[in-house]
Amino acid sequence: MADYKQPLLPPATKDQYDHADQLLIPSNGAGDIPPIRNIRDFSREFLAESAKLWFLAGPAIFTSICQYSLGAVTQVFAGHVGTLELAAVSVENSVIAGFSLGTMMGMGSALETLCGQAYGAGQLDMLGVYLQRSWVILLATSSLLSLMYIFAAPFLLVIGQTASISRAAGVFSIWMLPQLFAYAMNSPMAKFLQAQSKMAVMAGIAAAALAFHAAFSWLLMLKLGWGLAGAAVVLNASWWFINASQLVYIVGGSCGRAWSGFTWKAFHNLWGFVRLSLASAVMVCLEIWYFMVLILFAGYLKDAEVAVAALSICMNILGWTIMAAFGMNAAISVRISNELGAGHPRTAKFALIVSVISAFMVGVALALVLIFTKEYYPSLFSNNLAVKQVVTDMTSLLALCIVINNVQPVLSGVAIGAGWQAAVAYVNIGCYYLFGIPLGLILGYKFHMGITVSIISFLNLK
């Protein structure tokens, strides 16, 4: 496809399109849900759409939580090694790896639009081409990002981190270079499999990787005393285990026409693909990088090691809950792109309504669990009494943030499925960087609210 500006859709004449929907989608396509006129119609369609959505969202949420837990489990064990080690892993995970993961996820999300709509339109042979095209672009991007890993220590010093944290995080970053290239391979494969609703196999692989990761992290980091070196070995190995397993599944013939082998077509129309990938990257990265900025600001506060460690625990918890929303994000993106590709605009709109309601209910449930366990969960992350007390004090704000933040990734999934990445990027710039960060700086430093301001600013920008 030469032009990546418009979503990929099945052939149709101009007068078949419903311009009121602001998308090039055929109106009244066969298979679209009928108009909803009363509560009975709504209830019937809500249950039907919920079944489809959770068939995708359940395994996607589980996969997201397992993959996020790889870094989170490493932080948990690092907290039991020492406060400096926890701060170092947190800074590397949030700043260096977070920047790179945001870039890879963002650029890879272009496949959610292209593969999802191609699958819905029945153009299965294009999925493998898009996958390989994305690999080429993301591996090239990873080569550039590797400089950030190599020079992480001086970079962190320049932006104001303490010498001890910068030095430890810099060494750990160099050890984590293999993970960078694992991100580049993983993100396209995940979108490729998601577009075909092959969530279960991803969930199984992620679960096996997490079990392997937890066992060997305990063995190397605590039992054998390898510390940060052990963390790097296990974390790199876990990500490449996921990649190898998914690649074997894809090339082994389980994807049918979607994978017909490696092809030189992957190098055609790269610039058009890069444009959509960059728009996708900006949309996703602006949100993920906000977490990185919060961790950096904590490093400027008094008693930086405690501040960074406490905030990293809160961001870790928030990240786990956001994984549930990201799983819903993946599911709704698949639903929207597939339905638009098949020419079902009403079904796509109704899927949005169902996903928002479901995400809000999940957020409330997670927030209640956090509030009821606020006296206990900080001990899972650290032995430091000061760190645990700060985390306990911030739990109420963190719970409110979880409820509000659980809906936003779902809306982003709709934008990705419809191909609206560029427009949402402008919204994210305004919310996060023109409003949220300045608010955080004013409250944190002028009014001396410390790291509590990180959660407050995150709430206000939503």
TrEMBL record:
Its main location: membrane. It is found in: Membrane. The chain crosses the membrane at residues 135-159, 165-187, 199-220, 226-252, 273-300, 306-329, 350-373, 411-435. The keyword Thylakoid does not apply. One of its GO terms (biological process) is xenobiotic detoxification by transmembrane export across the plasma membrane. It is a multi-pass membrane protein. One of its GO terms (molecular function) is xenobiotic transmembrane transporter activity. Keywords: Membrane, Transmembrane, Transmembrane helix. The keyword ATP-binding does not apply. One of its GO terms (cellular component) is membrane. NCBIfam families: matE. Belongs to the multi antimicrobial extrusion (MATE) (TC 2.A.66.1) family. This is Protein DETOXIFICATION. The lineage of its organism: Eukaryota, Viridiplantae, Streptophyta, Embryophyta, Tracheophyta.
